[in-house]
Amino acid sequence: MSITLQNLPQELATLGQARWLQLSSHKDFNCALKDHEQLIVQAISLSDFIFEQISHKPDWLHALLIEEQLFAEQIDYCQHLSTTLATVEDELALHKTLRQFRNFHMLRIAWRDLLNMQPIENSLAQVSDLAIQLINQCNDWLYALLQLRFGTPEGEHGPQPMLVLGMGKLGGGELNFSSDIDLIFTYSAQGDTQGGKKSIEHQQFFIKLAQKLITALNQITADGQVYRVDMRLRPFGDSGPLVLHFDAMEDYYQEQGRDWERYAMLKARILNRPDAYTAELSQILRPFIYRRYLDFSAIDSLRTMKNMIQQEVRRRGLVNNIKLGQGGIREAEFVVQSLQLINGGREPSLQVQSLQRALSELQNLDILPQSSAEKILSSYMWLRKVEHCLQQFADKQTQVLPQNPIDQIRLNHVLGYQQAEDFMQALHQHHNCIHQQFLLLVKDEHENNTKPVDTHDQVAYDLWHLDLEPDEIEALFIKLAKEPLLTFSAEQLSDFYQTYITFKDNLQKRVIGQRGLSILNNLMPLVLKLIWSCEAHNPLTLQNRILTVLHGILGRTAYLQLLWENQGALEQLIRLCDASPWVTEQISRFPLLLDELLNPAALYQPVDKGQFSDELRQVFLRVEPDDLELQIETLRSFKLSQQLKIAAADISNALPIMQVSDYLTYLAEAIINQVVDLAWQQMVDRYGVPICQDTGPKTNEDKGFAILGFGKMGGWELGYGSDLDLVFIHDCQGNEGTNGKKSIESKSFYLKLAQRIVHIFTIKTGLGILYEVDMRLRPSGNAGLLVCHINGFTEYQKHDAWTWEHQALSRARFISGCQRLHTAFSQLRLAILSMPRVLPDLKKEVVDMREKMRTHLAKGTADYIDLKQDKGGIADIEFIVQFMLLAHTKNEPKLAKWTDNIRVLTSLATYDCLLETEVQTLTHAYLAYRNSSHRLALQNGQLAKSTPELLAHQQNVIAIWDKYLT
């Protein structure tokens, strides 16, 4: 075959001659090749890749030119590769053979392309055919290797192959010269292999095969690489199984397939030779890709994709990128694939992977005017020719116009332009042609009104919607930030960006649904803008907290929609999460709390502390009395929502610290009463009511049962996450049976009632537990009965209780039960606190107990204070108060009236047990500690940072302790 060689520009001629001298002086150079000097000079001046390959393999020139493989219009890659692989005996040899086969034939294609010996259409087909053969025959070779050891994965139609889906341009038969390959692996059905030395599950067999195939193609060796393999388009992306069986694949695409996956699947081609298995797979994929009607439902998602393409082009300024830039290859592909997606269900002829064939069919069906189709195809092929040239210069995957002069000259020469300006003019014309068609597609009449209106809107939009590199993400966050990010370390910023990237990447692992994903895509730019434009304590931390909440609700479209449609609710969420990681954790664990954000007025004004019982009662009016599961969930929901309101009021300083504890305590009381009623009714329904000797049958109003609150519950000092220190008592004399169909002894009834109450409090549901319950303050602690008779409780307190248990009784309060038990307990408490005591002995017992507690529990350090257990902390104040009560109540019975430390301290000053100044000192310290404890709880902290104020309080408390207890 004779070809016409163009005169080389001087720069290329000089380079070509230098390289020719280097080649012709090689010891293995075939002198017969000198007849082809002009052709060789031309080729090696145009491509570094060609020069490098024949420098390493001079004998390849003989095959190309003397054996005239270069001049053959077509090469049978299948036969050539099959013959070559027939002698390969191990994987190492397989890797070498594949790479050398690939390099030789890519050398031939590049040579023919750059010397314009064939049209670009032929080049695209050859590169694709070569790739398909390399993938398929490597797959077959490795399959046979594994069969020897593990046997054959048999299926309905005989041995099951691993089917390989080629995506993108490989699927379309229009692969780039230096492209990576996007693959998806699948097989027919599960089972166990048969006939091998060791049988394994089909899944294991195909995973091993997939791993070996990827290695054989992707690994870089001394001979280079066959192809870069990208598996991210498979179901669930990088986190998904490497190989899926048909049923799992079908389930994924039916239940979780995204619109972008439909778009990507348009180009999917089964690379294996056709058989019954490939036909079955085609039947599975087709309904997902194509609808049976004009698919206008895809228009919104296509419009979103189109906007994302435009945003990326605009933001990155991709003017020199012939693929991604405005009017580039991607826009041409988008035009064609979008029309296929919309019309392909109704027009089977559009169900093709090739862009060229699809354009022809769109024209035949009058979906695209002939002139438009011809212009798109002409411009597309011109750009693909440019793309091939760029990649053939050095076998690198690039679509960016060259900056170095030699490659610029090469490009102009191959395309036949004398001047660079002529090339740029042609490029501009082709870009305009494609971009005009792109703009006409799925045009949004309102898109000019819906584009972001200011810089922050635009930056936030880009951050979420565009596929960015870490440095690009960092640059955009810097633009978005209200304050400079200079205060954060590089490590903090790196962790932050990685968290953001991970959140985006994890979306493909979650079952969100198309509607949820659409709402999220609208919501996220607004979220980012609000976070970075508000007066946040730390925008990095705040954003991570918001992402935590969003991660918790990704599968719940209703909550995503709530935040999208109610910007006020979103702003409240941001405000609360900024203030407290504890609130963040609560909302992320229990998304129903988001409903509370809809009414900011109510959110920051919790129910009046005396109205919790009424509110809870009204809530229970909407719950069927026999729906025990819903009753338990309702209690948890009520507690969570009311606790959030209290925290919101606390954060906004609408409630002083004393009232925060009051509200939390009243809330617990209301819930305790409701739990007792629920448990009582359940027991009565099953066993009837207890019959007591002295008081007769029990009733809802007189249950003969009571709950005592100790510690923080007794002292009106509950905090966020506090457990409940409770003791159960009853006053039912005798042991008559209950009056139900299933009668049990009354003593057993109260035991079962107590067990049911604890169960309702502590059973874990989707909304967590209600409260942790601590019963260790009952008589004999954990060794004692769960519920005891009031007489037994009295006897224990009078004769067997330790001094520390009397201290605990000073903080005990009647919570729930009949008036009779209330009176009996109050009398007992006063009697115990009024017992005569020897002060030196009392002092020693109190001090010994305090030292024992501090030794085992204090966690303070040089820089951080344990507010409760360190010396001079909350526990010291409590022990001072308890010591004073036990020491002086005999003489001043009114000291026993209160159970909270603040009012007891006031009483101690009133009755001259402590000096007024000492009471003020202890009160101020106690309130400061309590306030810090609440703040720590909202920040999920345990120890307080040591400050001059806290240290001063410590010293003051220690001084008073030393005065009275040393």
Automatic annotation (TrEMBL):
Q: What is its EC number?
A: 2.7.7.89, 2.7.7.42
Query: What Pfam families does the annotation carry?
Result: GlnD_UR_UTase (PF08335), GlnE (PF03710)
- Where in the numbering of this chain does the Glutamate-ammonia ligase adenylyltransferase repeated domain appear? 40-277, 570-827
Q: Which residue ranges does the record assign to the PII-uridylyltransferase/Glutamine-synthetase adenylyltransferase domain?
A: 303-438, 850-956
GO molecular function per UniProt: [glutamate-ammonia-ligase] adenylyltransferase activity; [glutamine synthetase]-adenylyl-L-tyrosine phosphorylase activity; ligase activity
Q: List the catalysed reactions.
A: [glutamine synthetase]-L-tyrosine + ATP = [glutamine synthetase]-O(4)-(5'-adenylyl)-L-tyrosine + diphosphate; [glutamine synthetase]-O(4)-(5'-adenylyl)-L-tyrosine + phosphate = [glutamine synthetase]-L-tyrosine + ADP
Quick one: where's region Adenylyl transferase?
A: 460-966
Q: Which UniProt keywords apply?
A: ATP-binding, Ligase, Magnesium, Multifunctional enzyme, Nucleotide-binding, Nucleotidyltransferase, Transferase
- Ranges where the record places region Adenylyl removase: 1-446
Q: According to its UniProt record, which cofactors does this protein need?
A: Mg(2+)
Family affiliation: Belongs to the GlnE family.
HAMAP family per the UniProt record, alphabetical: GlnE (MF_00802)
Functionally, this protein is described as follows: Involved in the regulation of glutamine synthetase GlnA, a key enzyme in the process to assimilate ammonia. When cellular nitrogen levels are high, the C-terminal adenylyl transferase (AT) inactivates GlnA by covalent transfer of an adenylyl group from ATP to specific tyrosine residue of GlnA, thus reducing its activity. Conversely, when nitrogen levels are low, the N-terminal adenylyl removase (AR) activates GlnA by removing the adenylyl group by phosphorolysis, increasing its activity.
Q: What is this protein called?
A: Bifunctional glutamine synthetase adenylyltransferase/adenylyl-removing enzyme
